[in-house]
Structures are given as structure tokens and as C-alpha cells.
Amino acid sequence: MTVACSTICATATGLDEALQKIAATGFRDVDLMAFANWAHLAPADITDDPGKAAAFVAELLDRHGLRAVAMNVGQSYPTNTSDLAQRAQNLRELRAVAAFAGQLRIPVIALQPGHKDAGCSYDEAFALSVTAFQEITEAVAGSDLAVTFEPHSGSVAETYDSMQALLDAVPALGVAYDPSHFVAMGLDVAESAFLLPRTAHVHLRNAVQGNFQAPMDKGTLDFAWVVEQLKAHGYDRALAIEYLDGREDMPTVSADIVQLKELLLSLTVG
Predict the structure, then answer these.
(1) Fewer CB within 10 A of the end CB, N or C, for the chain?
(2) Rounded distance, CA 245 to CA 250, Å?
(3) CATH classification of 2-268, choosing from 1.10.275.10, 3.20.20.150, 3.30.310.70, 3.40.50.11890?
């Protein structure tokens, strides 16, 4: 396992500045944000010319001595939109992102599961997510890219039963494991171990019930348990620190990133 940092730590800046900050903190691996209307790469822009976008990012990574090990992707429209034109646009973007990732040798992307409240019943919203992920995984079949979903509160996959149901419905789909969301939702993190055999990426930060992000000295997540379980399941990819900047309740993000980095390095040795 390696310890990486997500560019979500610097969403108020451009990608160049975010990468500079991450490199200056001592990281060599980075998880790239590619979220429509947020940061740092717009999937729709990648769609225009994946090769040009990859060359641009490759130059930035090389400049800062970094390697991209994952992408956190937010398409132009919700994953489980019922609008056929929007679904087609999302799929075009994902095909382009897959080409972009292939050129940069990025092995995994994380996607949102889809909104629980999508203007229809929960069952319909869940079915739309299943269809979308089936289309996406089929579109990248044959490549080396792993497609994952990250469970979130407010999504169609906010309970352990619904997470399992989504995995059962889409056998090619992996998990972006982020236990901070389980802590925030009041779930027993120990019961999330069933997700680990399908885990292809990991996001980490401390959390408390009711808030998916908390300072390291106030959060309740047992990082030692998480790393121990990942080791036991043979996980050998990156642990991406995902502390979000710009929150008034978290003025110490930079210090918390460093603290979590050192803790994870100590836990992954051996």
C-alpha cells in the first residue's frame, strides 16, 4: 500500500497549485479530482480531446514529481439521471475519462452511486443506478481500468444492504471504500468488512457521527482496524487522504493531512 493525497485538499486553487501543495507536503502519489462544476478537471473538457488533456496533466505531474494513482469523477449529470440525453452524455464522458486514465496509467476511478431522491421512488432511482453502472462497466470492459462507486449518505447506496445489492447487480463494479461516511451515518464500521473483497480504491479522513470530516484529534475512526482489514484482504493499492478544504469547521486541514499521512505510513510498514 502507498499513501496518496487527493486534490480535494485544494479545491479553491487550480490543478497546478493543488499538485504543488501536495508535493510540498511530501506526497508522491495523487488522487485527481475531475468533478463537473467543481474541481479540478471537467469530464466534459476531457471528452473534447482525451489525449490533449492527458498530455497537459502529465506535464504537471512530471513538474511536481507526482504520479496519479486514481481519479474521483463527477460527471455532468447525476449517475442515475432518467434523462436519456443526459445518460448518453455521462457515458461519453466516462469513455473519454477511461481513455485519459489509460494514457496516464491511472488504474481506478471512483464515481458517485446516484441520488436517493432522484425525482422518483427509491426503487426506480436504484434501478437507474444499476443500469448506469452496467453501461459504464461494459463501456470500459477489456481495459485495465477499475470502476468503483463510493457509498454516500443521501445516495442509493447509504446502507450496507443497498451497497451489497448494488454489487450483486453489477458484478464488474468495485468499491471506493471510505469509512468516514459510515462513521458519519452512524453505521458500525466493523460491519463494512464485506466490502473489502471488492475494494479497488480507498479514501480516508477522520470523522464523527453526523459529520464525515473531523480533525484528527476529534474523530472516532479506527485507522488501525481499517489498515489491518485491508492488509488481511490483500489490498495493495493507494490509501488516498481526502480532507476537503474550505470548511469553516475545519481550519486545520493541512495539519490533519500531515498527521494522517504519518499515521498511515506507520500502520502500513511491514
Answers:
(1) C
(2) 8
(3) 3.20.20.150
Q: Which helix (H) or strand (E) holds 60?
A: helix 50-64
Query: Largest alpha-carbon pair distance within the chain?
Result: 50
d(CA 104, CA 55): 8
> What is the chain's pLDDT, residue by residue, as a tens digit (270 residues)?
999 999 999 998 999 999 999 999 999 999 999 998 888 899 988 999 999 999 999 999 999 999 999 999 999 999 999 999 999 999 999 999 999 999 999 999 999 999 998 788 999 999 999 999 999 999 999 888 999 999 998 899 999 999 999 999 999 999 999 999 999 999 999 999 999 999 999 999 999 999 999 999 999 999 999 999 999 999 999 999 999 887 766 767 889 999 999 999 999 875
CA dist 178 and 203 (Å) reads 5
pTM above 0.90, yes or no: yes
Tell me which residue of 202, 267, 268, 197 sits closest to 69, measured CA to CA: 202
Distances (CA, A) of 141 to 68, 147, 228: 21, 10, 31
With cell 479530482, the residue in question is 33
**Domain residue limits, the chain:** 2-268
Axis crossing angle, helix 84-103 with helix 122-139, rounded to the nearest 10: 40
